[in-house]
């Protein structure tokens, strides 16, 4: 198995595909040393303009001719003169002209070696990046449960640990799926919830709550009766949700409303709204600090909400993250994990200091994060269908596996008792399924 620590080292020194531009500039510099006719500042300026060409040398000579003769445009007859006949040598290369040929040859060879090294580093980056994506993820499939109806999109899930009922938002079918994890069977499907997103189960109430992105409502579902018992209007674009069991409040991310709606689950009514500095991503509850944390994805920061006063009490910038959407909190180990879908990164935050301690690459379009508390394993599901697996070791985590599962496999849930994971897949051979699997560490 490949060691993912090497991937992090390579990406730190050769990030992304920027090495292509570095190689191009280095090659031009090598040619400049060989020909001794073009100044490096000119090469840099012209490369930024995208105008590097084989006529660069002649262009430089014409510019020199304009300057020396104090004219704005070189006459046509002068432009037709072969470039070798121009005698002006750039001032900064006058000394270089006087150096022995051996010195010039050494400079040229050294420049070519640097180009080779840079290209080799870039190819290594591509190899590591693609090789790690090709490694099959060590998932032991327990069962693939076929679903009725057309192949449709899924979103968030939530597992009621008391009853074993897994509530899944089947947003493409405007319904909510009820799956019994103990019998591994679908026990119900509740229609009439268009564009469902966030899902939260509250075991002590025997209810599940699902947000509807298009209707701007939150639906309360009775888990035993399998029916909607309340509809609660909220702001624009409700998405992820988090529940505070002490204050009996449900916090709902309003992605388009730049706020978190606050619902009192005892009255099933919205009682407040918390205004944020930008677009709300996922919202999570921290059982140790008893605070609500929400990703504010358009300003790349994490904000803390006091659920007693329903006010933002802290702002934490997230350098290295673009569009922080997914969020999960390991309250026991005081770690927070932030998925950045703008640059395919996972940030690890020490909640003692609220400082970033690590950053890792994940699949394209990371979305839902799920934590196996007993095994200390974090799963990151991405829109690209890639699942990344991280193992916690103290206050650090490191990637141990990554691989493709299925297109749009962006949602995942963990059974804390059996350590099984649940992957609703929208289209496997023309039909939707729920894959029940287990990661083999």
Task: Average the pLDDT over all residues and give the rounded result.
Answer: 82
Regions with pLDDT < 50 over 5+ consecutive residues? Answer: 9-18, 34-40, 46-58, 77-99
If strands are numbered along the chain, what order do they take across the biggest sheet?
1-28-27-26
Helix proportion of residues, in percent? 10-25%
Radius of gyration: 29 Å
Give the CA-CA distance, first to last residue. Answer: 11 Å
Largest sheet: 4 strands, antiparallel
| Number of E-type strands | 28
Overall structural class, as computed from helix and strand content, comes to alpha+beta
Tell me what the structure shows.
The strands form seven sheets. Strands 1-28-27-26 form a four-stranded antiparallel beta sheet, with no helix packed on it. By secondary structure, the protein is of the alpha+beta class. It starts with a helix and ends with a strand. Helices cover 21% and strands 42% of the residues. It is built from seven helices and 28 strands. It is globular, with a radius of gyration of 29 Å. The chain has helices at residues 4-13, 19-35, 40-49, 56-69, 76-79, 94-98, 101-134; strands at residues 139-146, 157-160, 165-170, 175-180, 185-191, 196-202, 207-212, 217-222, 227-233, 238-244, 249-254, 259-264, 269-275, 280-286, 291-296, 301-306, 311-317, 324-330, 335-340, 345-350, 355-361, 366-372, 377-382, 386-393, 396-404, 413-414, 421-428, 431-439. Mean pLDDT is 82; it is low at 9-18, 34-40, 46-58 and 77-99. Helix 2 packs antiparallel against helix 7.
């Amino acid at each position: 198995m490949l060691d993912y620590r090497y991937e992090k080292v390579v990406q730190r020194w050769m990030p992304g595909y920027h090495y292509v531009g570095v190689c191009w500039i280095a090659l031009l510099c090598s040619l400049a040393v060989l020909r001794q006719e073009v100044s490096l500042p000119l090469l840099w300026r012209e490369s930024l303009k995208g105008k590097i060409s084989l006529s660069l040398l002649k262009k430089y000579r014409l510019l020199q001719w304009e300057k020396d003769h104090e004219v704005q445009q070189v006459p046509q007859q002068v432009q037709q003169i072969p470039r070798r006949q121009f005698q002006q040598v750039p001032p900064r290369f006058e000394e270089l002209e006087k150096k022995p040929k051996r010195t010039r040859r050494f400079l040229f060879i050294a420049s070519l070696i640097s180009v080779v090294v840079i290209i080799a580093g870039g190819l290594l980056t591509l190899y590591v990046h693609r090789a790690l994506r090709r490694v099959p993820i060590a998932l032991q499939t327990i069962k693939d449960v076929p679903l009725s109806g057309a192949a449709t999109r899924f979103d968030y899930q939530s597992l009621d640990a008391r009853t074993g009922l897994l509530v899944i938002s089947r947003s493409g079918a405007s319904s909510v799926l009820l799956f019994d994890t103990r019998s591994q069977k679908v026990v119900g499907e509740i229609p009439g919830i268009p564009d469902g997103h966030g899902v939260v189960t509250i075991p002590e109430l025997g209810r599940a709550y699902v947000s509807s992105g298009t209707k701007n409502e939150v639906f309360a579902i009775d888990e035993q009766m399998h029916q909607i018992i309340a509809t609660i209007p909220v702001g624009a674009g409700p998405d992820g949700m988090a529940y505070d069991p002490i204050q009996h409040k449900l916090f709902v991310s309003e992605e388009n409303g730049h706020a978190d709606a606050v619902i009192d689950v005892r009255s099933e009514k919205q009682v407040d709204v918390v205004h944020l500095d930008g677009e709300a991503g996922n919202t999570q509850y921290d059982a140790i600090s008893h605070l609500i944390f929400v990703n504010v994805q358009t300003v790349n920061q994490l904000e803390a909400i006091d659920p007693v006063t329903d006010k933002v009490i802290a702002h934490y910038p997230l350098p290295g993250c673009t569009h922080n959407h997914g969020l999960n909190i390991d309250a026991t180990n005081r770690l927070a994990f932030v998925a950045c879908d703008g640059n395919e990164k996972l940030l690890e935050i020490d909640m003692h200091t609220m400082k970033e301690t690590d950053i890792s690459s994940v699949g394209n379009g990371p979305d839902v994060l799920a934590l196996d508390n007993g095994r200390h394993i974090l799963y990151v599901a991405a829109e690209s269908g890639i699942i990344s697996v991280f193992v916690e070791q103290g206050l650090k985590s490191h990637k141990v596996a990554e691989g493709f599962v299925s297109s749009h496999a962006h949602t995942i849930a963990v059974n804390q008792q059996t350590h099984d994971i649940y992957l609703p897949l929208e289209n496997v051979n023309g039909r939707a399924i729920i894959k029940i699997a287990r990661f083999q560490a």
